Automatic annotation (TrEMBL):
Top-level taxonomy: Eukaryota, Metazoa, Ecdysozoa, Arthropoda, Hexapoda
Highest taxon listed in the record's lineage: Eukaryota
Gene3D superfamilies reported for this sequence: Immunoglobulins
Organism: Drosophila hydei
All residue ranges annotated as the Ig-like domain in the record: 66-150
Signal peptide interval: 1-25
SUPFAM superfamilies, per database record: Immunoglobulin (SSF48726)
Alphabetized Pfam families for the sequence: ig
Keywords: Signal
Protein's recorded name: Uncharacterized protein LOC111595251
Length: 196
């Protein structure tokens, strides 16, 4: 017969393992969503029996297709200037275009929309006195390479209102670390009880 103490320890170990599996074993839905956004696969469900529309390459890849070099997030405060960076590797031979969604903001060194300024040395775009309409996705297109650097601009009333995605992810990581620490402590306590 199994003693009552051993049975309690087994149940405790089982509970610890179940909690650890649920806390550490599966990525959060936002992590899975971020991973799906960062690849080129089409996740729409198609008929499994439908033939694959694969084609053989016919030569050189199309040079006109845009490449997303990076996607960034920039936080700012309403009423203050917000500076957006394009790329560190811009040369004099490059032509730089800035867009907000599909609206062109700059054409090389000329600003074509109000409420923006452009640094002619490094092509940083400044949103002057950011308003709620200033929030959104900005893209810097570098020609002739046709590279895009996209920046999502998030604005808040005060500095505490604007929480960056990185800080929310670090909160998730902290929770996972805490769960792992708790799991290790519980295992050590259980091992100590089993020895005595």
């Amino acid at each position: 017969m199994v003693s009552r103490t051993v049975r309690k320890n087994q149940l405790l170990l089982l509970a610890v393992l179940l909690i650890a599996r649920s806390a550490l074993g599966f990525p959060s839905t936002t992590d899975v969503h971020d991973l799906m956004l960062n690849d080129d696969y089409d996740y729409d469900t198609d008929e499994p029996s439908a033939p694959s529309p694969q084609t053989k390459p016919t030569g050189v890849a199309n040079a006109y297709l845009p490449l997303v070099n990076r996607t960034l997030t920039k936080t700012g405060i309403l009423g203050e200037d917000v500076v957006l960076k394009c790329d560190e590797n811009i040369t004099e031979a490059n032509v730089i275009l800035w867009f907000q969604d599909s609206k062109m903001i700059t054409s090389d060194r000329s600003v074509v929309l109000p409420n923006f300024s452009l640094n002619p040395k490094n092509f940083d775009l400044t949103i002057l006195k950011a308003s709620p309409q200033s929030a959104g996705t900005y893209s810097c297109q570098i020609l002739p390479q046709n590279v895009f650097v996209s920046t999502k601009v998030v604005l808040g009333d005060h500095s505490l209102d604007v929480i960056t995605p990185e800080s929310s992810r670090s909160g998730q990581n902290s929770l996972q670390r805490l769960a792992l620490l708790w799991l290790l402590s519980a295992c050590l306590a259980l091992a100590h009880q089993l020895k005595h």
